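user: Please supply your own:

assistant:
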Amino acid sequence: MTAADRFFCAEAARTRADSLAGTAPYGSVWVLVEYRGGWPPNGFDGLDLDPDTKGLVFSAAQAVRARVLLIRRHGRNSPEGPKRWAVLHYENSGAYRQQWGTWSRDQDLAQVAEALGAPGELGCPPVVLVCAHGQHDTCCAVRGRPVGRALSERWPDLVWECTHVGGDRFAANVVVAPDGVYYGGLDAASSVAVIEDHLAGRIHAEYLRGYTDLFPPQQAALSAVLRRFGPAGRHDYEVVETSREDSRWRIRITGRSPRPTAFDVEVHSHRTPPYQLTCRGLSMSSAAVYEVTSIGVG
């Protein structure tokens, strides 16, 4: 098979014009484990670690629905010495907490389980995660690594490459944590502009997949508000009410002045025809789509 004959899920998604809005997975806790060697296709689960420690971390993460990601600096240019780990928490109040540590032996990762039950520290800068997990999906490497390089050159202390974050067909995917904001369809130039705006409190709809503390129809509704009324900060809008009737959702969003104080957004959900959604997955699957049909202001 030649390169021209290969299937790339991100190219196919762009050809179909797959919608980004409403595709961020739900969650508010992240576990990051620095690993400088090759990443197995299934990430942390595939590491050859002490089984008792690995089981302890997995169970503690599962109990709070935390996503466990392997991380490394772009190009694997990490300094010598102990590797780092982190537990990141996003709170409904808008505050977020982080706890960082180091590990040299497998058993050191038991600290992760303890940190998952601790409050963590306020005031740490956000973490910018770029999915570059080529062993999981080709597009994540082909599209993710140039983005990782561009962002690392601009913010070397904030940016890490990471394992699978979901939505391979939207590569390059970038997650700002623990804000819980997913961006997709990025390249080197657009990623720098998007993260620069994000850090300045301006989230745009163009590359936004969603906020991870919201469910997909809520994410789509908020994205539509941002698209119509312009960029806003992470906490400038709040979903205050959600109702559903069959495949239709009605979502009320309130905003801070000087924006209109409330919006009633109607969302219709449907499924696409079956497609090949990942580079490596040969089976055909349909995807849920959340289409905004109206936005009422008042």
User: Anything to note?
Assistant: The chain has one domain: 3-213. DSSP finds six helices and 13 strands in the chain. The longest helix spans residues 138-154. Residues 4 and 40 are 27 Å apart (CA to CA).
